[in-house]
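If you are new to this repository, start here. Below is one unmodified record pulled from the training split, so you can see the exact layout before writing a loader.
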Amino acid sequence: MSHEDDVTGLLVAWGQGDRAADSRLIAVVYQDLRCVARRRLRAERPDHSLAPTALVHEAYLRLVDLRRVRWQNRAQFFAIAARLMRQILVDHARAHVAAKRGGADWKMPLADDLGATMPRDVDLLDLDVALGKLATIDARLGDLVVLRFFGGMTVEEAAESLGLSAATVKRDWSRARAWLFRELRRVVNERDSVRSPAGERRLTNRHTAHHTHRVNDRE
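And here is the target side for that same chain:
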C-alpha cells in the first residue's frame, strides 16, 4: 500500500468513527505537516512564540474538531490543513500586532513560493487581505495560493486537490503570482509614501486643516 493510500484509508476509517485510526493517522501525516509548518516559520523573528510543533498541534486539533467533513483522501486532508494553518498564522499575527499596539509587522518570506520578483518579506496580514481580495475576484486562484503557500503543495498535488490539470494549475499559478505582486507592491508603496517625510507632512496638513475647520464651525 502506498503512503497516499494509507492516509486515505485512515481518513475514511476516522470519518466512520474508528477511534484507533486517529492515532495512526497523526503518526502518518505528522512529519508532512511539520515540514510545511517549519517551512512557513523558517524566516520568522528569533523571538516569535509559535514553533512548528505548536502550529501542527493547533492545526491537528482543529482538524479533529471538524465533525461534518466527509473525509475522502490525502489531497482533501492537506487542503483543509492548509486553510487552517492560514487561519492560525493570521490569528497569531493579529494577536502579536495587538500586543505590540501596532508595533513590528509579522513578516513572511514569499520569494521561494510566489516568485523571485516578489518582495522578499511581506507582512502576513497584508498577504491575508490581498488573498481575501483575490478570492472575491477569482476564488480558484485564491484557493491555489492557499494550497501552495500555506499547504506547501506541489503543482501536481494542488491539481489533484482542485480537480484540475497540472497545466491549468501552472497557468493559474502564474496569474495568481502576477496579481499578488501588483497588489502587494501597491500596498507597500502606499505605506511607504505615508511614512515618508512628504507623506507625514501631508497627513499633518490634513489634520491641521480638519482641526481648523472644526474650530471655525464652533465659532
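Two things worth knowing about this chain: Residues 105-219 form one domain. The chain has a mean pLDDT of 77.
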